Amino acid sequence: MDVDDTTAAPDPDAVGLFAFNVWNYKQGELVSLMIHIGQRLDLYRTMAGLGPVTSLALAARTGLDERWLREWLFGQAAAGLLEHDGETGFELTEVGAAVLADDQTSLAYAAGAFTSPPPSPQIVDGMIESFRTGVGLSYDDRGPSAAHQTEQSLGPWVRLALVPTIIPALDGVEATLERGGVVADIGCGSGVALLAMAARYPDAQFHGYDSSRHAIIRGRANLAAADLPGERTADERVTFHLVDGSALPTEPTFDLVLTFDCLHDMTDPSGVARAIRQAIRPGGTWLIKDIRCADTFDANRKNPMLAMMYGFSIEGCLASATSTPGGAGHGTLGLPPATMEALCRDAGFTRFQVHDFEDPANLYYEVRP
C-alpha cells in the first residue's frame, strides 16, 4: 500500500543558513582558544605599536617557532583580529591593541577573559552531572584557573574606574576612606580591588572575604608582593578571610561593603545581605556591582552577547549558585534591578540608588541602612 507522505522537506537554503550559524559557534570556540594562546604567549602586547610585521620578524622578536606563528597569524587575520597585507605582513591596529593588549589604560581590554583555557573534560563532566542532580560546581571545584581569570578580567576596571570614578561618585565615601574607614570586600577574589583601594587610601583598613581557597591563596600572595604606601605594613592594613559573606561580624563594623559581580553567584545572597546589614555602620554604604540585565528574556534579547551570558552562567555563575543543595540559583542574569532592590530592602536596607557608569556589562547600586 502506498503511503501518502505529505511532509515537505525543509528549505535547503534555510538549512544551509542554520548550519552556518551552528558552525560559526564552533569557529568562535576555536578563535577563543587562539586568543588564549596569543594572550598567554604575550603576542598581542608584543605586536602592539609595531606596525605590520611578518611571521619571520615576529619569530625573531619572540624566540617562538616561525611556522607555528605563521599559522596563528593567518588565523587571527581570518578572524578579523589582525590586519593582513601580503607584502608587509600582519598588524595589530590601535583599535585591536586597546581590546587585546592594553590592560593599563583601556576599559575595552578583553583579553583577560581568555586567560583560562577551555574547561577540562573533568569540568565538563561535572557540568553534565549538574543537569542530572541540580547541584553545580563551586569555583574551587574548577581549580585555580577560575580565580586567575577573574583577577585578569577585573584588573583594568579596578585601575581605571573603581578608584578614580566610582568611589568619588558615592555620597561621602571617599572622605570616610581618607579619614581611615573600614572596608569589607565580600567575594574579594584575589584582592585586586582591595589592594587598589589600599594604595589610594593608606589610612583605611581593608578586609577581604571569600570562600574560595584558590582565590584567598592568590590574594595573600598579591598582598605579600604589594608595595603599599603608608606607615603601616601591608599585613596591618589588609586581611584576607577564607569564609563566605555569612561570617561577617555581627556588630556594626564597616563603613563600606563591596560585592562585585558575586551576589548572583551565591547560594544564599539573601542571607549574605542580612549579614551585611548587621555588619554595616549606620552611616555606611554597600556598593554592589552586578550584571546589567532586564526582568524578562524578551527584554534581554537586545543584548548581542546574551547567548554568551547564558553560557557563562552554566559554566560558572549558576553552577556556583547551586553548589550546595537548595542554593538560590540566580545565575548570571538573575538579579535585575527590581529583584536586587527587593533583596536589599528585605534585608533591612532603606535606601537604594542605581548608578549607570556607562559600563556595558554592569550596573552599580549604592545601598544604605
Describe the structure.
The protein is an alpha/beta fold. It is built from 15 helices and nine strands. It has helices spanning 12-40, 43-47, 55-62, 66-78, 94-100, 121-133, 144-169, 173-179, 192-200, 213-225, 234-237, 269-279, 297-300, 306-321, 337-346; strands at 83-85, 89-91, 182-186, 205-209, 238-241, 254-260, 280-291, 351-355, 362-368. The strands form two sheets. It has a seven-stranded mixed sheet, sandwiched between helices. The model has no long low-confidence stretch (mean pLDDT 91).
What is the gyration radius calculated from CA atoms?
23 Å
The largest sheet is: 7 strands, mixed
Tell how many strands the DSSP assignment holds: 9
Rounded mean pLDDT is: 91
| Overall number of domains | 2
Secondary-structure element string: HHHHEEHHHHEHEHHEEHEHHHEE
Helix content range: 40-55%
| Largest beta sheet: strand ordering | 5-4-3-6-7-9-8
Note the total helix count: 15
In angstroms, what separates the terminal alpha carbons? 79 Å
CATH architecture of the largest domain: 3-Layer(aba) Sandwich
User: Which spans of ≥5 residues are poorly predicted at pLDDT below 50?
Assistant: none
For this structure, what is the CATH homologous superfamily of the largest domain? Vaccinia Virus protein VP39
Overall geometric form: globular
Summarize the helices and strands and which ones pair or pack.
Elements: H1 12-40, H2 43-47, H3 55-62, H4 66-78, E1 83-85, E2 89-91, H5 94-100, H6 121-133, H7 144-169, H8 173-179, E3 182-186, H9 192-200, E4 205-209, H10 213-225, H11 234-237, E5 238-241, E6 254-260, H12 269-279, E7 280-291, H13 297-300, H14 306-321, H15 337-346, E8 351-355, E9 362-368
Parallel strand pairs: 3-4, 3-6, 4-5, 6-7
Antiparallel strand pairs: 1-2, 7-9, 8-9
